Amino acid sequence: QVQLVESGGGLVQAGGSLRLSCAASGRTFSTDTMGWFRQAPGKEREFVAAINWSSGRTYYADSLKGRFTISRGSTRNTVYLQMNSLQPEDTAVYHCAADPEYTGPRALYQYWGQGTQVTVSS
Given the DSSP bridges, would you call strands 10-13 and 116-121 parallel, antiparallel or unpaired? Predict the structure, then answer.
């Protein structure tokens, strides 16, 4: 099992920035991809970004490229999401996800965190 805990969410004004962190524990050696999804009230869960540990390759939702950056820590247990130029439509619960094999925009990841709330005021 892998446990994921997100942190770094909060309230920010439009145009501001936040950096989310996801700390993994447990059988982290079994995960090769970590990613971020978000879910706004009344909407479906949406892919944000993902990173593959083996290749270092990153993936982004087209609509978020240039504003959001995913990166990994020095060990296979931390991933970050730097969010810049935040807008009210970015308001959502942001979830960290991990999987042994799958890397992509679909919510097929095996492990999920509880999420951290990001609220952007206008």
Answer: parallel
29-84: pLDDT as tens digits: 777 899 999 999 999 999 999 998 888 899 999 999 899 999 988 877 899 999 99
Question: Which are the contacts of 61, defined by CB distance < 8 A and separation ≥ 6?
Answer: 46, 47, 48, 49, 105
3-state secondary structure string across the chain: CEEEEEECCEEEECCCCEEEEEEEEECHHHCCEEEEEEECCCCCCEEEEEEECCCCCEEECHHHECCEEEEECCCCCEEEEEECCCCHHHCEEEEEEEECCCCCCCCCCCEECCCEEEEEEC
